[in-house]
Write a structure and sequence with these properties.
With about 425 residues, the protein is mostly beta strands. Strand 15 and strand 16 form a beta hairpin.
Length: about 425
């Protein structure tokens, strides 16, 4: 028993030492916890994430809206007999405006949540439009004007009187509107007041002249590496330094160069330091200026200053990895918690206070060859020499994370 206790103490100290080294050496590696149907989430396909003015986290799924208070969920679903229930259970987009009010876009119309009464107000975008429209994007510009892009068009939303809203349809040519139905549409505004609209038809810069929209269209041009890498736009984001990032369905990321009206491409091509997948779902920014990029194949983190990339993916051997690689939404909060909505993996979150051990054990070929650790020694290069009880000597390269085992071989005098 004394031997077992001593061995467990050595293993614990080794794991603690490894954890501290990897936290400093690989600070980009995030440790995740997850919330799924097992914890009370209504469904594991989380398409949108937001935080309201009261600090509640909201998660929109394909089967219900979820409010989370850090302890439990409250689920909102449509009830035909209740006119104040949510319009539809399939939540396509969540948005919190400058007044800290929650807007909910569904596949059957637009809702505004009343925290005071804990109910929903159905917003008719226009008197001549049907209610069963699919909401794909909600945005507030620098004049606090709300824009709603739906399956029947782009609307400017105005508050005629308190809590009473009406929409005005903005005419869009087919070259801007793209395909109808459930296809992605996104709108944002740059520092110069220009609006950028993305759809399956390409990227459009919209300016307002004499109360009329004027468009310039950007698309992929064959044999032109300075054009967009793909014409199907899925995400548009302006960062804290006014750089405009464009996500596409098949062509990775594009960075807009305003001085030349051209783009710098960041496509995945199987090499390191590029996005893990060309299907970009969402782009946003964390508090230290790193770009957080959600893709079909995991989370990419880009440092725009150094052009360095890091990657977070699901690993079956790591309970603190992403629960699923298919990312649809990312929401960094002011307290530096990163919330990630995945497709069938529920919600993942990473906190700066979330530290997890990186455990090396014998169930992986790349790890130590014996679980009983007797001694650990750091060399001048900050790599580790690990002595085991019966497994020989292991060498851990801190930079690469690889382990090399040195064992006695009776026929090899150099072993």
């Amino acid at each position: 028993m004394a031997f077992l206790v001593t061995s467990m103490r050595k293993i614990f100290c080794f794991c603690l030492f490894i954890s501290s080294i990897f936290q400093s050496s690989f600070s980009q590696n995030l440790n995740f916890s997850s919330l799924t149907v097992n914890e009370g989430l209504s469904q594991n396909a989380v398409l949108s994430v937001a935080q309201d003015g009261n600090g509640f986290m909201w998660f929109g799924t394909q089967d219900g809206l979820n409010r989370y208070d850090a302890k439990s969920f409250k689920i909102y679903k449509h009830a035909a007999s209740d006119s104040t229930s949510i319009s539809f259970n399939y939540i396509s987009v969540l948005f919190v405006d400058s007044k800290k009010k929650l807007w909910v876009g569904t596949r059957n119309g637009l809702d505004r949540y009343s925290a005071r009464y804990d109910r929903f107000q159905h917003i008719a975008l226009a008197t001549n439009t049907r209610s069963d429209i699919i909401i794909s994007s909600i945005y507030e510009d620098n004049r606090h004007q709300l824009w709603v892009w739906s399956s029947v068009g782009l609307f400017m939303l105005s508050e005629a009187r308190q809590d009473q809203y009406s929409g005005r349809l903005v005419p869009l040519p087919d070259s801007v509107a793209g395909l109808g139905g459930t296809n992605a549409r996104i709108i944002t505004q740059d520092e110069n007041g220009n609006y950028w609209l993305g759809s399956s038809a390409g990227l459009a810069r919209m300016t307002i002249s004499n109360n009329k929209p004027v468009f310039k269209i950007f698309r992929k041009i064959p044999n032109d590496d300075h054009s967009l890498s793909d014409s199907y736009i899925t995400s548009i984001f302006q960062d804290s330094k006014d750089r405009l990032w464009i996500g596409t369905l098949h062509g990775g990321i594009n960075l807009y160069n305003s001085s030349t009206d051209e783009f710098i491409r960041y496509p995945f091509n199987g090499k390191a330091f590029l996005p893990v997948n060309n299907n970009i779902r969402v782009i946003t920014e964390n508090s230290d200026g790193k770009m957080l990029i959600g893709t079909l194949g995991g989370l990419c983190i880009l440092d725009p200053e150094t052009k360095s990339w890091s990657l977070c993916k699901h690993s079956p051997d790591d309970t603190h990895s992403l629960s699923n690689n298919s990312i649809y939404s990312i929401y960094p909060t002011k307290d530096n918690i990163i919330w990630i909505g995945t497709y069938w993996g529920g919600v993942n979150y990473s906190s700066p206070y979330n530290s997890a051990f990186h455990i090396y054990r014998t169930n992986k070929v790349s790890d130590v060859n014996n679980n009983i650790i007797s001694v650990v020694k750091e060399d001048a290069a900050h790599n580790l020499w690990i002595g085991t009880e019966g497994g020989g000597l292991n060498y851990l390269n801190i930079r690469t994370g690889t382990v090399t085992a040195y064992v006695n071989k009776p026929n090899d005098p150099g072993s």
